[in-house]
Automatic annotation (TrEMBL):
Pfam families per the UniProt record, alphabetical: NMT1 (PF09084)
Top-level taxon: Bacteria
Domain SsuA/THI5-like intervals: 63-260
Name the record gives this protein: ABC transporter substrate-binding protein
Signal peptide range: 1-27
Entry keyword annotation includes Lyase: no
Protein species of origin: Martelella endophytica
Keywords linked to the UniProt accession: Signal
Length: 330
């Protein structure tokens, strides 16, 4: 296995991302709840959610128990939350406006979870040094995924016609993207960690570092969002606040200790620890999404017809920043 230790640090630096304190380590712990409360949490095995590995240990003394439900896709997690099967879910930034546009009034945004620079992963022997180089290439995508929204928004703002290249829809999880790239079925892939790092570390692909698609005004660099059901916020608000407190505490702990971040990354994803160490270098834990940016994304993709209805005006009523404020107040 080949290692390119600098490229992952470059990813964070080139995106203008840096770790910032998210949590006051000197703050007092919240008081335990009077009676035990269980929260059902839908999640995915992705590196930027590594803090989930630490959360339950902080919640045990507070009378909050988590029932974790793994999902392969953000979209499936969103559906489960809307159906009432979950109290809290990790989804993509676009899932909030998608839910609203589909008529659901039950999803409330709480905060983002992490950010990174985003580059197409290019098959060795192919070079992409400008957006114009996409012309005629075969690009593997997952339409409707969080990274696809980032990529598509960047192309729009850069004035690159979406039909200037051949988009190849790839079904299944991230491993299918890497397999398509390795076989030569596509020239580049738009995917997510750890499947971005694997082709680089295994020597059959490279980052197109001149094509950062994390900087669009309408979508930005956010990798995922924490959302809750309206019912959970009404009936289990104190438990939800304590969950967010524990998550922020875990985020800060892992941000301060790269080795611990890599170990939690490997534990959550099942990835080899050496690969997790490299992949985690590209990720900055902590929220960068705002209600204003979520509203811009809602409008941009409604204008394109990707989201059924322009719900940008509804975002402020479905993004509750007071949960994080309360969690940080202890």
């Amino acid at each position: 296995m080949k290692f390119f230790p600098n490229i992952f640090a470059m990813a964070a630096l080139s995106a203008g991302l840096s770790a910032v304190p998210m949590f006051n380590a000197e703050a007092a712990d919240p008081a335990p709840l009077d009676a035990p409360v269980t929260l059902t949490v839908g999640y995915q095995k992705v590196g930027h959610l590594a803090p989930l590995e630490l959360v339950q240990q902080y919640l045990d003394p507070l009378n909050v128990k988590l029932e974790m439900a793994e999902f392969a896709r953000y979209a499936d997690t969103r559906t489960a939350l809307i159906a009432g099967s979950l109290d809290i879910a990790t989804v993509g930034p676009a899932d909030l406006p998608i839910a609203l546009s589909q008529g659901s009034d039950s999803v409330v945004g709480i905060m983002g979870v992490g950010s990174s620079a985003k580059y197409p992963i290019v098959r060795n022997g192919v070079e992409l040094s400008s957006w114009e180089d996409l012309e005629g290439k075969k690009i593997g995508i997952a339409p409707g995924s969080a990274v696809w929204f980032q990529f598509a928004a960047t192309l729009i703002e850069a004035g690159v016609p979406y039909d200037s290249f051949e988009s190849v829809n790839i079904q299944g999880g991230g491993a299918a993207f890497d397999q398509a790239l390795q076989r030569g079925d596509v020239d580049a892939i738009i995917t997510w960690e750890p499947f971005e790092s694997i082709p680089v570390l295994e020597g059959y692909g490279h980052f197109a570092t001149d094509l950062d698609y994390s900087k669009s005004e309408s979508v930005g660099a956010e990798l995922g969002m924490m959302v809750a059901s309206k019912d959970a916020l009404e009936t289990k608000r104190d438990a939800v606040v304590r969950f967010v407190w524990a998550y922020l505490k875990a985020q800060q702990e892992l941000s301060d200790d790269p080795e611990a971040f890599a170990e939690a990354y490997a534990e959550l994803t099942g990835l080899d620890l050496d690969l997790a160490k490299e992949a985690s270098k590209a990720i900055t834990l902590g929220s960068v999404v705002t209600p204003e940016q979520a509203a811009r994304q809602a409008k941009a993709f409604a204008d394109l017809g990707v989201i059924q209805e322009d719900v940008s005006g509804d975002i402020p009523d479905h993004f509750d920043e007071t949960i994080v404020e309360e969690a940080k107040s202890y």
